[in-house]
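As noted in the main text, all predictions were made from sequence alone. Below is one such record, for DUF4185 domain-containing protein.
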Amino acid sequence: MRKRLFPILLVVAVAGSVHPGHASDGPAVSLTVAGDQQVLYEWNRQRCDDEQIPDSPARAFRRADGEIVLIATHRTNWALIGSDFASLRPSCETLLRGTDYPAGTGKLWIQATYTYDGKNVAALVSQDLAIESRQAGCDPAGRIGKCWLNKILAARSSDMGRSFDLFAPKDRVVVSLSDRYPEGADRRYGAFTTTNIVRKDDAFYTIVYMQGSDQAASGNCLFRTSDPMDAGGWRALSLTGFDVDVKSDEDARRCVKLPHLGFEARSLAYSAKHGVWIAVLAGRFQLAGDDRPVAGFYASTSPDLKAWSKVARIMRAPIKPREERPDQYWYYPSLIDPDSTSANFDTIDGDTAVLLFTVGHLRNGRGTMNRDLQYVPVRLEASVP
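Prediction:
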């Protein structure tokens, strides 16, 4: 038996199955941190270059040679590699970058990975087309948020994740609301983030957050495929099943918006012991006993990835610069069991896990490239209804 790397505390309640998209009435999830905050990657000391920052939720998989690859990446797409979590160290190799493709490809962030064999790795990639939208004439004044167009693309690796390539242009788009930023829009628009890819029975799932033209087209939607290596196989859950190939704003309206996940769902993990899926997110929620919404990291559970419980707070966290703390802000939470027997770290096999997140350091109230990847240990316990 491998030695547990971290001590921990997290409380999970099991909810019954309900109609897709409806909220669970089961007990709320309570998460209590049981250890000190630790640094996994320190930008000031360990970076290969200034662009090597943790700017996306952490994802992990095991290579065919037994090494662990942990990706929490920026637009240059880099990774931490080690024989176990305790030995993870940054690699100076670039996995994927938009500048290696023709003009107009945009900036690329690897958001999810999945491998069957540790050699061939599928990836979902967030594509930022804000610069391209401005070059096409959108908002010359450059107001923040306006002109930001985003899609989810497919990529793959055949060398154990050392490098990734986008699929051919005709095959690479997985989720898109439009090829152009809408005229008259005043905020970001498109498909922005995905959770990691997880396996349930004989299918594979991810949650994609979309921001469309209105509330009906915006929110977290559950996607399924029979093979993550097939870029064209992903379909969103609607009221009639997994039958929506989201390529337009109207398609986005048809997908079921998952309940209680009011902000971007950042990661998924299955607790085998408790029989529930756990989603984590950053946001502000007003829970029982709060006199106002509280910024922090939160969790929700589901028996089937469709019906989600009300969130419970894992920990308070300064999630927006200059509002909760003058020197730091924390974001991109993800829940991973370092001792998971899954090659894709999508399961929590015992009572332990770690909550990883990015810590951004401010200087005189302004953002910097100084960002670290940190974690706190947590422990799973079933609450009593």
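The two ends are 33 Å apart (CA to CA). The longest helix spans residues 130-135. These features were considered when defining construct boundaries for the mutagenesis experiments described in Section 2.9.
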